[in-house]
Every structure is written in C-alpha cells, then in structure tokens.
Amino acid sequence: MEINQINSEFITISNVKIFCEHVMNGKPPMLLIHGFASSTYTFNRLFPLLEKYFSLIAIDLPGFGRSEKSTNFMYSFKNYAELIVQCIDYFRLTNVTIVGHSMGGQIALYTAKAVPEKINKLILLGCSGYLKRAKKFLIYASYLPFFDYFIYYYIHKKEVKDYLENVVYNHSLINDELINEFRKPLLEKKFYQSLTRLLRYREGDLQPDQLKVIQTPTLLIWGEEDNVVSVNIGKKLVCDLPNAKLITYKKTGHLITEERPIEVFEDILSYTL
Questions:
Q1: pTM for this structure?
Q2: PANTHER family from the xrefs (predicted)?
Q3: Could you give the C-alpha distances from 147 to 90, 129, 239, in angstroms and in order?
Q4: Active site residue: 70, 102, 142, 194, which one?
Q5: If DSSP codes are grouped into helix, strand and coil, which group holds residue 57?
Q6: By the 8 A CB rule, do 78 and 85 touch?
Q7: Order of strands, sheet of 96-101, starting from the edge strand that comes earlier in the sequence
Q8: Calpha distance 177→214 (Å, rounded)
Q9: What are the Cα distances from residue 181, in Å, to 185, 186, 273?
Q10: DSSP E strands: which ranges in the chain?
C-alpha cells in the first residue's frame, strides 16, 4: 500500500503560529492531540500506521512542541478546544475523529461537547479526567514575578529519564531519542511562561454532569499500570460518557503510543472503520 509523504508546516490560528504535520489523502479525517509537556512526537509510531487508512493532522498545541509560546494566548481548555475547531475548519474537514492522549483527551472532550456536529468519534488514550482547577493560592502566586523560574526549578529537580520511567512501564523502551525529545521543551525559557499561564487559566476537567451530555461514540484505551492517570479514571469515564467503550492493556504505562502502537492502531481501526 502506498505511503504518503508527511507534510510539516506552520499555520496561524487564533493569532498563534501552530506547527502541524499532516497527510491529506482523501480518506476519513483524523486529528491527533498530544498531552501535557509533549508534542506531535507522541504519535510518531502511530502516524505511519494510521496514514494508510486516514487523512491525518497532528498539531503542537500552543505553548508546546514547535508551536508558538504566546504570552497573549489564554491557555484554557475552552480556548484549546476553540483552536481545534478552527484547525478543523482551516483544513475544511467534516466528520472528524479526534485522537487525544492525556490532557489532549480532555481537550478532545471539550471539543466534542462544543461542536458535536463536527466530530465523528473520539479515541481517548490515558485521558486526564476529573481534575479540579488549580488551588487559588497557586493561581494568585502565578502572577508573582519570576513564578516561571519556580516552575523551572521544580521540574528540574528530576532528570528526564526519571520522568520517563514513571510514564513507561517497559523501561527498555527509554532510549536517547526518547529522552532527547522529552528534554527539548525543558530547554526553552518560554515553555515555563506557557506553563505558568496554563496553571493560571486552566479550568477543571469536565465533571460527570457535563460528560453525560456528550453523545459522541468514544473509545477509551488505557494502560493498566498507568502511574499518571490511573485506569480507575477510565473506568469512571466509561460510566459517565453515554456512548463509550473501555479497552485496557496489561503491563502498559501512560505513554501508551510508545509502548503499544500496534495494539492501539488495531483497536482504533476496528472501532472507526
């Protein structure tokens, strides 16, 4: 089967420069949203498998990856969801399936709640759920000068490899490439300014009464050894979402696209086609 070339470009949406990778091949559209402190690299092992069956668009959210770390963008889930809608319109897509990992899954839920008519299905991988808004004292503290330096020093208390060992069950997968990709954002000063604004403006995750109105067919995929977002969150989401199915993988952590790309691909395919 012919493999299409992956195109990379910067587009401007909501007055923010967004990095995206895409393959437009006339097949059903699928949009991929990474999680917190990540990038399109999250889907690097999944992309070559999915592009045989879907037109694909993966973006770096504002504040992450190669996208602009704007000080004017309001880093809230509502704004992220609006940006996703504008991205869908920019590429003139209809009936889109959204794949969201971790925080990207929560953004996908916000998007489906806002514009259900544009969304075909949701695929949520280790999706964040039920988190409240940051405590008031942290929100107030985020306005203090040099708060972003506090975040910098807090994050740098651990090595990148230590963080990866927490998100990957199979530590043999942790190689120099993976470490370097996850280190990249930590080297950018503006990344910490973006995190400060995300802490300040991020609403809480959708609560049960809000989830129950989302009728979009939803596939939840989880690693049973996820130390970041417990599989119990998936078990709760499958009860609160009216049209959801949960699949779990044994001996798998939070970075499910790195650990189980073939299984994730096959489950996405069977659910969507």
A1: 0.94
A2: ALPHA/BETA-HYDROLASES SUPERFAMILY PROTEIN, LIPASE-RELATED
A3: 35, 26, 39
A4: 102
A5: strand
A6: no
A7: 7-13, 16-23, 55-59, 29-33, 96-101, 119-125, 218-223, 244-249
A8: 38
A9: 8, 10, 32
A10: 7-13, 16-23, 29-33, 55-59, 96-101, 119-125, 218-223, 244-249
Residue in 22, 34, 101, 254 annotated catalytic = 254
What is the DSSP-derived secondary structure letter of residue 198? H
Helix/strand/coil for 41: helix
Between CA 44 and CA 213 the distance in angstroms is 33
3-state secondary structure of 218: strand
- Annotated active-site residue 254? The verdict is yes
Q: 């999680």: which residue's tokens? A: 35
Degrees, nearest 5: CA angle 223-226-228: 140
Q: Tens digits of per-residue pLDDT, 68-127?
A: 999 889 999 999 999 999 999 999 999 999 999 999 999 999 999 999 999 999 999 999
DSSP string, 101-157: ETHHHHHHHHHHHH-GGGEEEEEEES---SPPPPPHHHHHHTTSTTHHHHHHHHHTT
Distance CA 53, CA 210 (A): 32
Residues counted in the chain: 273
Residue 102 annotated in active site: yes
Backbone phi and psi for residue 252, each to the nearest 5 degrees, phi listed first: -140, 135
Report, in angstroms and rounded to the nearest whole number, the Rg of the chain calculated over CA atoms.
18
Set out the domains of the chain in order of their start, with CATH numbers: 7-131+203-272 (3.40.50.1820)
Average pLDDT along the chain, 273 residues, taken 10 residues at a time: 75 95 96 96 96 97 95 94 97 97 98 98 98 89 87 88 96 95 89 91 95 98 98 98 99 98 98 93
